[in-house]
Amino acid sequence: MPSMEEYRAVHGKEPANRKDTETEFGDGGCNVISQVTGGIIGRWDSWDTASRALSELQKLGFGYEYRLEESHQWAQETESKNRCPVCRNTRGVPALSSAGRGILRP
Q: What ranges do the domains of the chain cover?
């Protein structure tokens, strides 16, 4: 759970009420800021927006280390394509090795 200081760093103001600091920040996307010691600070759709939030958090200097990563939840959509249901990004399924397809070479 983010602290009041983290809320101020990301939003530039005090929260309207305490409950605003009890949830993750952001708009729920796949670009995730977390503390290195554990705990998610927020999730954003835009890498740029998440990067700006990370920069503000790093200015706090409380000894916390933060990390920004893409965190997709890939689900197979077709035989050759995966899709993340959170951000709707797609990627191709890696080709199986010949051994994985039951083809044995002498």
A: 4-70
